[in-house]
Amino acid sequence: MKVLVVGAGMYVAGRGTRGLGTILPALAQASRAGEVRGVTVVATQPENGPLIEQAASRVNALLGTSLEASYLSLRGTLAATLAGLHFDCAIVCVPDHLHFEVAQQLMGLGIHCLIVKPLTPTLEEARRLVGLQEARGLHCAVEFHKRFDEQNLLVRKAIREGRLGRLLYLVVAYSQRIDLPLQTFRAWADRTNIFQYLGVHYVDLIYFLTGFRPARAMAVGTRGVLDGRGVKTFDSVHATVVWQGAQPGEEMITQFAVGWVDPASTSALSDQRFVLVGSEGRMELDQKDRGVTLVTQAEGIESLNPYFSMILEDAGGAPAFQGYGYRSIERFLLDVGDVIAGRVEAKALEASRPTLRQSLVSTAVVEAVNQSLRAGGEWRPVDDPA
Ligand SMILES: NC(=O)c1ccc[n+]([C@@H]2O[C@H](COP(=O)([O-])OP(=O)(O)OC[C@H]3O[C@@H](n4cnc5c(N)ncnc54)[C@H](O)[C@@H]3O)[C@@H](O)[C@H]2O)c1
Fold first, then answer.
1. Same structural domain for residues 373 and 228?
2. Is residue 313 part of a domain?
3. Which candidate, 66, 174, 340, 352, has a CA 20 to 30 Å from the CA of 239?
4. Does residue 74 line the site of ligand 1, with CB under 6 A?
5. pLDDT score of 43
6. Treating both helix axes as pointing N-terminal to C-terminal, what angle do 200-210 and 150-160 enclose, rounded to 10 degrees?
7. What residues in the chain have per-residue pLDDT under 50?
8. Could you tell me the CATH number of the domain that includes residue 53?
9. Alpha-carbon span 241 to 239, nearest angstrom
């Protein structure tokens, strides 16, 4: 398959970090099995060209692959930039507020799309994308990789087996280092907020785990640290979302404390944990501390998560890019391969993938939370897209 990637930033190729990102290594890994034949990256700045070239050659050297990756600077519209080129699918990885515009153009060209979270900031945009996708018979999904984390699959199993009883409440604490809004995402941090950019992961996860539908939401936030350093956005957002189960009166309350002002010296990029309590049990997950701590003179203390996305060698010394971040992208590539070959229809994947239609749920919650933040914390109904 020929794969288009729109965006050349941190998540694609590790811009501004010591790492190589997630998307480019995943595509190189997939090229090993023959799923990917070549990659074209499109973004706005010409200086991304050398960055992509260097990242691809580092990835190829580490994995022993020979992925061909080229770079194109955006000239005029995306459709004009891509004129005369053919792609089997695309991965959209641009700032949150541009997901709609980019995905709409690609889907208009009949290209299957994987879009990084959040799908879009508004339900209206997300619904338009679903309409376009269904009209064109495309397979499109959101890269909600937490659905592929074994820890979360274990929670889903415990819920389904009834071990927790009736679900009552869930509390999430999720935060990232301050250098993300101050440096890495400075160009667009004031166009999003930490709930929309990060909290959305757990909104989708709660829907995936429980199948409950969101009913209403309220949110307040703290400000001042980032404002004082020129990035006009909330330091943290504190949201309560009430969900409705399948049975009448079956309500679950979830609370989110999400922030991005953690010290740059904290031991992991993401601090993330949640507790889920039901009438018959409780489950606690520390998703930052996976039990691995590395302390070095050079880097200090690091809490490493070997399960997300990393190049690791097997016992025989063969390196592979692996983890739930990889599996999420691999799943999309395999699905697109099946759809193109006629082995499966796109709509048959609707029930079991983080499709655009499934992602209307998290988009609706993001929209209600954003409305509540603007209204000083008033409750807002969630416009359930069911
Ligand atoms: N799933 C995850 O865990 C995860 C992690 C990080 C970021 N993200 C999401 O990925 C998206 C991008 O994040 P990032 O970390 O790569 O950000 P980044 O700021 O490092 O990169 C953004 C890239 O988009 C490009 N770009 C901007 N406007 C464009 C346009 N109109 N057309 C084409 N390219 C354009 C820029 O040139 C840049 O290369 C965001 O929506 C973010 O929320 C997801």
1. yes
2. no
3. 352
4. yes
5. 97
6. 40
7. none
8. 3.40.50.720
9. 6
Contact 237, 181 (CB under 8 A): no
Name the nearest CA neighbour of 147 among 206, 216, 194, 104. 206
Local structure of 96: helix, strand or coil: helix
Residue 194 lies in a domain: yes
**Are 106 and 241 members of one domain?**
no
pLDDT at 66: 96
Please report the sign of the dihedral spanned by the C-alpha atoms of residue 152, residue 256, residue 269, residue 36. positive
- Nearest ligand 1 atom to the CA of 198 is 43
Question: 320: Cβ below 6 Å to ligand 1?
Answer: no
Which residue minimizes the CA distance to atom 20 of ligand 1?
A: 9
Distance (Å) from CA 196 to ligand 1 centroid: 14
CA distance 266 to 375: 33
Please give the number of the atom of ligand 1 that sits closest to the Cα of 15. Answer: 20
Identify whether the C-beta of residue 56 lies closer than 8 Å to the C-beta of residue 29. Answer: no
pLDDT of residue 359: 98
165 with 296, same domain? yes
Quick check: is 319 in a domain?
A: no
Residues 279 and 175 in one domain: yes
Question: What domain range is 100 assigned to?
Answer: 2-144+324-354
Please report whether residue 318 resides in a domain. Answer: no
Give the pLDDT score at 385. 80
Which of 4, 5, 6, 10 has most ligand 1 atoms within 8 Å of its beta carbon, as the pocket-test mutant? 10
How do residues 196-222 score in pLDDT, each as one tens digit? 999 999 999 999 999 999 999 999 999
Q: Kindly state if the Cβ of 49 falls inside 6 Å of ligand 1.
A: no
Number of domains in the chain: 2
